TrEMBL record:
Origin species: Zongyangia hominis
EC number: 3.4.21.116
Gene: spoIVB
One Pfam family it belongs to: Peptidase_S55
Enzyme class label: hydrolase
Keywords for this protein: Hydrolase
InterPro entries, sorted: PDZ, PDZ_sf, Peptidase_S1_PA, Peptidase_S55, SpoIVB
Descriptive protein name: SpoIVB peptidase
GO molecular function: hydrolase activity
Taxonomy of the source species: Bacteria, Bacillati, Bacillota, Clostridia, Eubacteriales
């Protein structure tokens, strides 16, 4: 009997030890390396992680002093059940930000910084198919910025240089995955029209409809979409040279179904120039506002990621005209991991009116703000193709950080 009891205790202890190790590793990799809090606020982590922040004594001063001081930072140790060390994190004390939460539809007119290679097409030359660009090492997704030392901004710029080369080699400067590369391209004389060709298709601009997430009247900066504008053919981020935003009137909604995403239908209001695009990045599009007239919304504080709870929330979006409305949603999952800057939450649409009219999340709703407990917590970014009632969302904290970078660059330029 004693032997059986000892064996049981041993097995139980081994299971518990394994579970503790698994929980420790899960929490270590699921939780980020840094958090933000406002002055006077303590760091609290969702109870589902079973961790408690404990002062390491390595703060600039102690934790309570850091919490009360300006622009302070300090270290804390996260411990499982307050006992088992998981990881150390940086806690940054910042001012609580407040922005106007929008849900306003806007039109985007964007020109690329260089021209994006979106396709390749062989050239028939002396009866044989050749591709000069491919032979020069240029690939779909590359961005051509210079030809023969001259900046190229449009499709026409590329066409003129290639067609006017008389078959002479053209030097090309291009970018791939952030790296600047150089090559020489030898245009081929087309049998079809006797003109010189490079064998590529390029794109220099794009336009579309999105939703503005927030506007900071004090800085004159806005944030929207919650994800980058990417080329429809290559999926590559389109580098921004210049761009404008204008008002949009939503005229209808194509309802989403499983396997077929829906979309907002609307038209640009050309007379409502709203502002200028300054950045197209992973977390969204950002810029300055010159005409705030079409923007509707109310001021709210921006929530820190650790304040967001799984449960009820609201999405603010526009399905008709230019007037945004609130709809009920459920935050099903919150992911703190820093490796997914645009897919921080899983959102489920629960509002009967929104489900009836749109079927859930549709294209054009990207950037629609999410609010919970009177704070801006994030924005819708992607729809689940096979279940349009669900989608991903980004933390507002991530978008605000990008907006502040734009604010700083605009201030420095001025």
């Amino acid at each position: 009997m004693i032997k059986k009891l000892s064996k049981f205790i041993f097995v139980l202890s081994a299971v518990m030890a394994t579970a503790l190790v698994a929980m420790t590793f899960y929490s270590k990799y699921a939780l980020p390396d840094q958090f933000y809090v406002s002055k006077g606020q303590s760091l609290h982590i969702d109870s589902k992680y079973c961790v408690e922040p404990v002062s390491t004594g390595a703060a600039r001063g102690n934790t309570s002093q850091a919490s009360a001081s300006e622009n302070a930072s300090y270290r804390m140790e996260l411990r499982l059940f307050g006992l088992i060390p998981v990881k150390q994190v940086q806690v940054n004390v910042v001012d609580q930000s407040e922005v106007v939460v929008c849900g306003t539809p806007f039109g985007i007119k964007m020109f690329t910084d260089g021209v994006l290679v979106i396709g390749a097409s062989d050239v028939m030359c002396d009866g044989s198919a050749v591709n000069p660009a491919k032979n020069a090492g240029i690939k779909v997704g590359d961005v051509i910025v210079k030809m023969n030392g001259a900046r190229v901004y449009t499709n026409e710029d590329v066409g003129k240089i290639v067609s006017g080369s008389a078959g002479e080699s053209v030097s090309v400067t291009y970018k791939r995955n952030g790296q600047t590369l150089y090559t020489d391209l030898s245009p081929a004389l087309s049998d079809e029209d006797k003109g010189y060709k490079a064998g590529i298709w390029v794109r220099d601009s794009t336009a579309g409809i999105g939703t503005m997430t927030f506007y900071d009247p004090a800085a004159g900066v806005f944030g929207g979409l919650g994800h980058a504008i990417c080329d429809v053919d290559t999926g590559k981020l389109m580098p921004l040279s210049s761009g404008d935003i204008v008002g949009v009137t939503i005229t209808g909604v194509k309802k989403g179904e499983a396997g077929t995403p829906g979309e907002l239908k609307g038209g640009f209001v050309e007379s409502q120039h709203m502002g200028t695009l300054c950045a197209n990045g992973e977390t969204g599009v950002y810029g300055t506002i010159e005409n705030a007239g079409p923007i509707q919304g109310k001021a709210m504080p921006v929530a820190f990621k650790q304040e967001i709870k799984e449960g009820k929330a609201k999405v603010i979006t526009t399905l008709d005209g230019q007037t945004a409305q609130e709809y009920e949603v459920m935050i099903e999952k919150v992911n703190y991991n820093d490796g997914t800057p645009t897919k921080n939450m899983i959102v489920k649409i629960t509002d009967p009116q929104l489900l009836s009219k749109a079927g859930g999340i549709v294209q054009g709703m990207s950037g629609s703000p999410l609010v919970q407990d009177g704070k801006l917590i994030g924005a819708v970014t992607h729809v689940f193709v096979n279940d349009p009632t669900k989608g991903y969302a980004i933390f507002a904290e991530n978008m605000l950080s990008s907006a502040k970078n734009v604010e700083n660059s605009v201030s420095n330029a001025a």
